[in-house]
Every structure is written in C-alpha cells, then in structure tokens.
Amino acid sequence: MPRTTITPDDGDTNGWYNILPEASPPRRVDGDMSCDWAVVGAGVTGLAAARRLAENRPDDRVFLIEGQRVGWGVSGRNSGFVLGIWFHGEPPEADFPKIRSMQRLSEFGRDQLKHLVEHNQISCQWSDWGQLYVSAGDTGDAMLEGYARGMEKLQAPHSVLSKEEVKTRTGSDFYRWGVHTPGTALMNPAAMTRGLARTMPANVTVLEESPVMAMRYGKPHELTCPKGTIKATNIVICTNTYSPHLGLMWAKWRMVPAGLFASLTRPLSDQEWEGIGAPGEAGLLPSAPAGSTVRITQDRRILMRNTFDFLPKMRATPEMYARARANHYESILRRWPSLKDVEIIDTWHGVLGPTRNQGHIFGRIRDNVFASVACNAANVSRGTASGTLLADYATGGDSELLREQMAIPRPSILPPAPILKFVVDRRRRKAMAVGDNER
After folding, report:
1. What's the rounded Cα separation, in Å, for the pair 220 and 35?
2. Which pTM does this prediction carry?
3. When you count CB atoms within 10 A of the terminal residue's CB, does the N or C end of the chain come out lower?
4. What is the pLDDT of residues 97-154, one digit of tens each?
5. How far apart are CA 38 and CA 61, in angstroms?
C-alpha cells in the first residue's frame, strides 16, 4: 500500500478565506470509521460529487474528506468567476462543436451553483455581472478580435465596448476596448465553497484537516489518515494535481503543476473610490496570455491575478511570492495610478492542472473506485459539472450531458520533468515577451 509523506499544502495564506468570519471548528477523521462512499477532496468537484451521491443514494452514508479546511485549497483561491462559457478566442478553425459541448457543461455547473447559493442563502457576494474580456495592446487586440468572432459564430450574447465604455465600467483607461458576455457570475470562492460544505444533505459528513496518506483497495477499501482509518465500499477521487501523491501514478505525467499568483487589497476608501470614478463591481479577463485577471469586488477591493510559475512540487518559494506581489502592485498602478497608497493585504497562489490536449481523467478507474482529475484551469462551473456527473455515473445514471463529459479524451502523456520544465519556461517567457505590456 503506497504511503505518502506529502500532505496538501497551499501555503500560509489565502486572501479570500482570510476576509471571512472565523470558521467553526473542524470535524476530523478520528479512529476507525466506515461509510458507503468516501469522496476524497473537497474542492468544487468533490463538493458536487458528495452532494449528488447523497441525493442519488439517500440511504447511503457519504464521507467528504479534505486535507485542509474547506475553502482554503485551490477551489477557494481562484479569481471567483463562475463561467457560463469557456472560450478564449480560438482561431477560426477551432472545433466549435466541442466548444459548444464545453459551453453546455459550463452552463450546467453554473446553474447548479446558482441554485445552491440562492436556495441555501450562502453569503459569498454572488453576482450575475458577466465577464469582460479586455485588451491593452496589439497582442490583446488580435486575441480579442478572435474572441468576438467566436461569439458571433456561437451565436452567444455579447457586447463590444469602446475604450470609454470600458473606462466607465472599470474606472481605468488602461484598456483599448473590451467584449462583455453575460451568463457568468462573480463571487468569493472561499465563502462559496465553505457554504456548500456547510449545507450538505444530512447523510454527508464533512471531515477536514484529514489528509489521506494511503489507500488500500479491496472489499472494503481502506483510507489511512493521520489520526484514523476509513473503510469505504466506494471511493471517489477529486484531488487534481495532488493525485500522484496518493499513489495514482496514471495522473503523474498528464498534468502540468502550474502555479498562478493573486493579490487582494484592503477596501478602497471613499476618496480612493471616487477618485477612480466609483465604477462598481467588475470582473475582467485578459485576452492576451500574459495579461491580468482583475476583480473589483462588492466591498471595493481589487484582486489582481497574474505571474505564472512551474511548480513540480506544488510549493511556492518566498522569492516567487515577492516577485508576484511586486508585479501585482505594478499592475494595479498601471490601471489606476491614483491608488499608489493602496495596501495589498494578501498574496497567494493556486496550483492548476492543465493538460496537453484539454483531456480529463473521468469515470471508473478500478472496481468501485471513480475519479475526476485534471481541471485544465476550467473554472468552478466545469468542476461542479464533472463532480455531479461523476456521481451520476457511479450510481448508474445516464444523460446526454454525462455522455458529453465521457467523450472528453484522457490527457496526453507529458514529457519527463527536465524537458517539461524547459517547455513550460520557454512558453512562459514567450508569452511575457509578446504581452508583458498588458500585465
């Protein structure tokens, strides 16, 4: 039985989490426990899988097992977009039937989350604001033109905004123009995931701060945590880039462990807010690969997300954090020069799992063991959809959406570590060289 000494560790801080009220004390795996379904990983995928399993099998006992606190990991440290469409301006020869399929999956996940947030009155600053793709240079212009053409071909609602219209919505004249698309929601991801865990069906037990150190397959399966053991009839794995550390070596060379960094400011003062035109809430996505994702939150904070690093050990160094924080402060001043005195209160990172071919490990991987692994930076909508559909698959369900999910190919094999690092670093340098002025 392979045993890991590496536990989930997303760093010492998470700005979204830290601005929330203190969480209630966690329940941990303690002693010998048993269940019908053990869902490993309480990100959006695991949260959705556990909920759907409980609904499909109301008489079964479901454990949702998280190595940290719910909301602290990757699903609680993204930019807070719930995308209704996952399209980034592919070239004219793009596979539009595939893109439409991805859109249907995203819309399904978004609608699931919207219903749960509203029905359970989860306080997470949810807003159906949409998304605004923006350009600040020649590289961004070319990509944004491709995005607008794609929206036309998809017959998706969208609005082309001039420089002045973008400035009205953002308070910044940094951008040349933009394309606004409705159907995307904005939220605080740590608050949303904590709320989803808190409002689980009665037959779900959420177990936090209980990293799975080993899994032994059998009848029943056995999961070992630091202070106890779980015996489970079925296992559902939703651990993304952490999966190889659980002995799931089929995932090791199929995902790129990529760290993306973000910073959050304190709330802007009345004077600062009025100084940038009191723009209101906003969610901006860069059309250029080296650009910045930007949020203006409902409580007047600015989130800046850029700076990419290859993290094969999924750990960021102090030097990486310092470089990212400096980049974020510079990016804020590029957009709002009057905010030179605004303080950044937190800088953190999240580890993504992109693949070469946008592939996904999904379905049964052995008897009574199921998995949804490889997020492809596909946002919380797709993660929610895949978790829900995996639970349907595991309990014998069938639907058109499930068949679309299962049609996604497995991730292609990546080159070994030294070559992979070279390739990733080269692509990062290239992206920065052609679009650094849009960061």
Report:
1. 10
2. 0.95
3. N
4. 888 888 999 999 999 999 999 999 999 999 999 999 999 999 999 999 999 998 988 8
5. 9
